[in-house]
Amino acid sequence: xxxxxxxxAEPAAGxxxxxxxxxxxxxxxxxxxxxxxxxxxxxxxxxxxxGERFEAGLRAVLEAAAGQPDLTRLCLVEAPGLGSKALxxxxxxxxxxxxxxxxxxxxxxxxxxxxxxxxxVVGGIYEVVQRAVRAGDVxxxxxxxxxxxxLWLPALRGH
Length: 159
What we know:
Helix 3 runs antiparallel to helix 7 (144-157). This protein has helices spanning 5-9, 18-43, 50-67, 69-78, 84-109, 117-134, 144-157. The protein is mainly α. It has a single domain, classed as Tetracycline Repressor, domain 2, CATH 1.10.357. Helices cover 74% and strands 0% of the residues.
């Protein structure tokens, strides 16, 4: 008889559970991806348009994800099955991208970002990327950058 998941994941005295380690990896991966996006956006000229800056950040994240296929699969496909704690961590990770994009939109529009635009864009991209990873196309993620940018650019520009 195969051991059930709870018994396998039970921490030994003084050790960290497998789920805890996976959640730590999830947090670190979202942190790294957000930092790469932020660095790519900041590397663009300050007067660059929202389209150029958005695509730079998106491409940086997709290239990083493609460069670490096992971690990407863990974060986007496996981790959501860990339950509510993993979903909270995923939501917090995605919120970093929403906040980053809100900041860019506010900067471009001289004030406040439009309500829900960043959340819609980030959530939509997450779903597309997650499906590609589930289908086994991690290496092709950077190829999505142009298409995703063109798809979301009208929403980002407010048309």
